[in-house]
Specification:
heterodimer, A: 290 residues, mainly alpha, 2 domains, 3-stranded mixed β-sheet, 13 helices, 68% helix, B: 130 residues, alpha+beta, SH3 type barrels, 5-stranded antiparallel β-sheet, two-stranded antiparallel sheet, globular
Chain lengths: 290, 130
């Protein structure tokens, strides 16, 4: 009887203890797992959510930047390049630059002069025009200078490629002195270049004004005596180190002067570039009074 | 029995098409330009294209081009473009960089044509690095 009682007691305790332990373990496991899982899930999700949020913010910023960029005015140098080419397009028929032209080898001789005189890494574009309406001009490009020269003028004066290159070099020097840009520049251009017009329309009168100024500068206004004097003195200084070039330039000015005095077709030249006669005088050595 | 007469024509067509090989796809650099009928700056324009336009450069034993020109295919047109106008990478174009500003000018067909011609007519150069 005692044996049965103790056996039953032992078994009940054993069963009870086993059940109790398992329950605790289970509870603990459940509690721990749930809490860890919860934390893990919460942490993971919140971290992922944060990452996602950051990504979205970065993307939104980029998108806004791209969208804002679509409404930008070009930079100053880009406006110069665009306007000069647009002016050439608008005046294509008057200037008549779309024609089959002879290969004068001007690019090589002009490049050679620039390099001989120490002008390195300079980009240029030369456009030959088949019209006496414009004899020469230097326009600002995006990164380079655009040099225009008239083929009828070249032919009538029977210019050699060295002489053509020297005329182009004089235009290059005049352009480098900043007279053209200073003359056609507008306040609007300074104000608007590189700015943003989001929420509105671009003010294209910015370019229209510049185009009008181009016309006036190239066809009517030209350069002053003072500016031409500065250009001639600059040419003198550059070419003095190379007597061959200096003499060629001096002779060229005399040739142009004589030609213009006898040719009515280019009568406006002297008004725009005053004047080859004066240039010769400015370059001539002072006469000694005995 | 008329069909054997067509056989040489069919064979010739096959030879022509297999002779051409696409060298690669390049991108057009200047703002506007033309696919020319022949490898000459002043030759007629087959079509006008703008900056960043993809161009397939073709090699063919039947078409000889100088060093300056590439034989190309643009859409259905096969013609010539100056090599210095093509690049392997997509260029950054004015009209792509400032689309709203550029669109405001509403350039007409004649202006697009002349802009392309202008790029052909330039004599370009750059002095060396010191």
């Amino acid at each position: 009887m005692n044996f049965v009682f103790f056996f039953a007691l032992f078994m009940s305790q054993l069963v009870f203890s086993q059940t109790e332990k398992l329950q605790e373990e289970k509870e603990l496991e459940v509690v721990n797992f749930n809490s860890i899982k919860k934390i893990l899930v919460q942490d993971g999700l919140s971290e992922a959510a944060k990452k996602k949020e950051k990504q979205v913010q970065v993307l939104k910023k980029e998108q806004a930047k791209v969208e804002t960029g679509r409404y930008l005015y070009p930079t100053e140098s880009e406006i110069w390049g665009f306007t000069s080419e647009y002016w050439l397009i608008k005046n294509a028929q008057i200037l008549d630059w779309d024609f089959e032209k002879p290969d004068y080898g001007i690019d090589k001789s002009f490049k050679s002069i620039l390099q001989d005189l120490g002008f390195y890494q300079k980009k240029f574009k030369i456009l030959l025009v088949n019209s006496p309406n414009i004899v020469r001009a230097a326009l600002p490009g995006n990164e380079e200078v655009i040099l225009l020269i008239s083929v009828p003028f070249i032919r009538m004066l029977d210019l050699s490629k060295l002489e053509i290159a020297l005329l182009l070099f004089e235009d290059f020097v005049r352009f480098d002195l900043g007279y053209f840009k200073k003359s056609v520049m507008t306040e609007k251009m300074t104000k608007l270049s590189g700015s943003n017009f989001q929420g509105g329309k671009p003010d294209i009168s910015l370019i229209e004004e510049l185009l009008r100024n181009y016309n006036s500068q190239i066809n009517e206004k030209g350069y002053t005596f003072q500016q031409m004097f500065e250009v001639t003195k600059k040419m003198d200084a550059y070419l003095k180190s190379n007597p061959e070039l200096w003499n060629a330039y001096f002779r060229l000015l005399g040739k142009v002067d004589r030609f213009l005095k006898t040719n009515v077709q280019f009568k406006d030249y002297i008004k725009l570039y005053p004047s080859p006669e004066m240039q010769v005088k400015w370059l001539s050595p002072d006469e000694k009074v005995l | 029995m008329w069909w054997p007469l067509l056989l040489p024509i069919l064979l010739f067509a096959e030879t022509t098409s297999t002779d051409e090989r696409i060298v690669g796809t390049f991108y057009f650099n200047p703002m506007f330009g033309h696919v020319h009928q022949s490898a000459l700056r002043t030759s007629a324009s087959l079509t006008t294209i703008q900056c960043s336009h993809p161009v397939k450069v073709i090699e063919s034993s039947k078409v000889s081009v100088g060093r300056e020109w590439a034989y190309v295919q643009v859409a259905d047109h096969k013609g010539f473009i100056r090599k210095d106008f093509l690049s392997q990478r997509r260029p950054e174009c004015f009209q792509g960089k400032y689309p709203k500003f550029f669109d405001a000018f509403n350039l007409d067909l004649s202006e697009l044509y002349y802009w392309g011609r202008l790029n052909d007519q330039y004599i370009q150069g750059e002095t060396r690095v010191k």
